[in-house]
Prior knowledge:
The complex is a heterodimer. By secondary structure, chain A is an alpha+beta fold. Chain A folds into two domains: 31-255, Alpha-Beta Plaits (2-Layer Sandwich); 266-297. Helix content of chain A is 33%, strand content 12%. The longest helix of chain A has 28 residues, at 270-297. Chain B is mainly α. Chain B has two domains: 14-45 and 368-389; 46-365, Formate dehydrogenase/DMSO reductase domain (Formate dehydrogenase/DMSO reductase fold), CATH 1.20.1630.10.
Amino acid sequence: METRRDFLRTAAVAAATATLGDAALGAAPRIPSPDRMGVLCDLTACIGCRSCEVACRKAHGFSSDSPLSMPGRSNIPERRRPSADALTVVNEYKNATGVGSPTYVKVQCMHCDYPACESACIVGAISKKESGPVLWDTDKCIGCRYCMVACPFQIPAFQYDTALKPDIVKCDFCVDRTEKGGVPACVEICPVESLTYGRRPALIEIARKRVENYPDRYRNHIYGEFEAGGTSYLYLAKADFKELEFPTLKKDPMPGTSESIQHGIFAYFVPPISLYSLLGGLMWINKNRQKAEEETIE
Amino acid sequence: MSTLTAPEPLTKKYITPGVIILAVLALNGVAFVLARLLFGIGAVTNLSDQYPWGLWIGVDVAAGVALAAGGFTSAALGHVMHREDYHAIVRPALLTAMLGYTFVAFGVMIDIGRWYYIWHPLLMWNGNSALFEVGICVIIYISVLYIEFLPIVTERFMGRVQLKGIFSILNRPLESLLRTLDRTLSKTMFLFIIAGIVLSTLHQSSLGTLMIIAGPKMHPLWQTPVLPLLFLLSAVAVGFPMVIFEALLASRSFGLKPEMHILSKLGTMVAPLLGIYLAFKLGDMVIRETFVYLAEPTTASVMFMIEIVVGVIIPLRMFLSRTVVRSPLWLFVASTLVILGVLLNRINNFIVAYTPPYATAGYFPSVGEISVTVGFVALLVLVYRFLVKVFPIISVEQRPISPTTKYSIRGTAK
């Protein structure tokens, strides 16, 4: 079903491209499907057990020898980032006042609605699926790492130590499991239900209700609802998201400026063709002028 | 024209002490390229998940493309404006552009993780990606540059194909191939020349679009929506200084008299071009009110000031002076400053300005990265030196055979 729909869409785009010849113009801003899935991370519930990290490693076939594959808090003091060796990590943030329990922040790909990595990718190896995930295609990727430059959350990692076929590594939203009706490994394992998997609009509604019902427990900010145009991962917390090292981002999708420049330069190929004609005209005029000058000299 | 000049293959011997030093540097770079191919990017570079792009993209690719801009600016001057007095610089500039872009392609190939997929952008398109546009334009432009170079090849070998032994059966087909090429190219060359200029303006500017998508990860002193325009203007401004720089170096190295009557005239064109660039650069800073960052003594503000003062304002003032433009030494100094300024600008845009939100350490290129970059430059110079000995590229002052002969007959001129 999914593949059939994909095929039809590709065919439709190809037909449109062929008739209008506007490959460089790009499509109109895509409206994300209301059915796309997301995850709501309630950081006030997280106890920092790292079970999600362990489950993630298992689900994605990472080595089980690594200390990262052991649950528990031994890795917590160190501030970590997702890497070629971990798709998700949990970091501890001490309470700003010094008293009260710390906040634990699970970090992974945010699965943006308008991903900078997707827009940037030179070969279109990264794509936002209608069902929510932002996925990377190993068959296309050339390893240029422009996605890493573009990502505002600094998420994609690269296998720098692989000589022959290094991968871009990032959370894939457990697409293998969700396609079969399952839920992401991290969500499934979470013992305190800090993570909720569901349709994004429904998650936002849940988040709003929680904020409304427990104003003392939550800050009135659903991180990811609007940041960078909206993300599939949404966060609730008591602390200011700045203190938890979430980047402060505007509502506009990250690719906006660069895409409008790109499409401006290439609008129906008018600017390049005009420049070509202009130069051709100049060349012709100058050549003729010189010929005329030579004739008068003679 | 008072002196009759025509490009011809140079006869000076290839190996000099300088050439040996360059060869050592080139070999050292090649060794690190091999290490990168065998053990991966991490083994040779200081790149990381925090700093995915470093010296190779900033200098080998971005600065390399900018410094090869002499090719399209001199093509515009020589062919589109049809100024015959500048024809002497068109061929050296073309060769530099051709080699420069070839080494840009090598630079890209060793920097991307899967170098054997370098052809993917030809089939897998993403019209939203600035990098895609740069890639496609550069691929086509390299082809155009090689086509533009072909007439030099036909000129050199037409009527002189004399392969020995069993290869002698190829003499005839090769000769007729050269003649066909010569005939078709002389009629169609203007199409390629204009295409080369259009492609250059496109990818020179799109190279500036590259970092825009990095948004807040880039220091506000450089992050601006007019980056593509600034990249294009700076590339145009550095084109002639680069041509002057090479011409003076080459004449020195080959013991020729520098063609100051051309170079001085080129020099007078630099100041207006640099001025336009500076105006946009400063105007952008005023409109976005980013000058506030210059008050803080950070690496970024210091680098920005060096880039603007040493790389733009000082050489701009120098190029306005008549004494500078007429003196080979001062002209060389001023041109070098412009080149350094653009080089620094690309380094600043791609490396210094890039501040990842979760950086735990800074980035400084490794010995391996520097070795490869230096090695590529050395190799480029060696190939250049070789090609100007084989092909008629550099114009040499002729003893006038007959002052009224406008065109020298092929084969008679030495």
